[in-house]
Design a protein that fits this description.
This protein is an all-alpha fold and 73 residues long. Helix content is 56%, strand content 0%. It is rod-shaped, with a radius of gyration of 27 Å.
Length: 73
Amino acid sequence: MAAQGKKTKEELAAENLGIPVEKLRELKAQTRAAKSRGKRPAGTAGAETKLAAWGPVEGQEELFACDTDQAAS
């Protein structure tokens, strides 16, 4: 319990739910982790634009060359 007998918001919420404060903290951490799953890491937005700004890369034609005559047969 907090100093001077005052309860924190977290303690009051746990009391209302009928669970210990430690369990409430664990549930909050699990909820935060579940919400953050699948989100794009910071700084990756617009990666295609950043790459395009570099301009053409030497040897790029060989890397992405496709022979349409062979692909059709």
